[in-house]
Write a structure and sequence with these properties.
Blueprint (H helix, E strand, L loop, with lengths): L3 E6 L11 E5 L2 H14 L2 E3 L15 E3 L4 E6 L4 E5 L3
Antiparallel strand pairs: 1-2, 1-5, 3-4, 5-6
Length: about 90
């Protein structure tokens, strides 16, 4: 696991905990850049971590980045270091 964990969810339908985990990154900027790229592209991605979950459903694993939330957690500092809303 890399230092910065990215969590993402739909505005009204968060899965909760690790079900909202997307990926981990070596730097905070790398995680932010990924979010900004996906928001700019407004593309769907597959959340690979959910494929391992017993509750995996293909239709729920496509993520639309526009109009939703994201958080980045620093596992060394044990705190949230970035969020997509104010």
């Amino acid at each position: 696991m890399k230092r910065f964990m990215l969590f993402y969810g739909e505005s009204y339908y968060p899965s909760g905990g690790m079900e909202d985990f997307v990926n981990s990154y070596d730097s905070l900027q790398e995680a932010i850049d990924f979010i900004e790229l996906k928001e700019q592209e407004n593309t769907d991605i597959i959340n690979e971590s959910r494929k391992m979950s017993p509750s995996y459903r293909k239709d729920k694993d496509y993520i639309k980045w526009s109009g939703n939330w994201a958080h980045i957690w620093d596992i060394q500092e044990n705190k949230e270091v970035w969020c997509s809303y104010k």
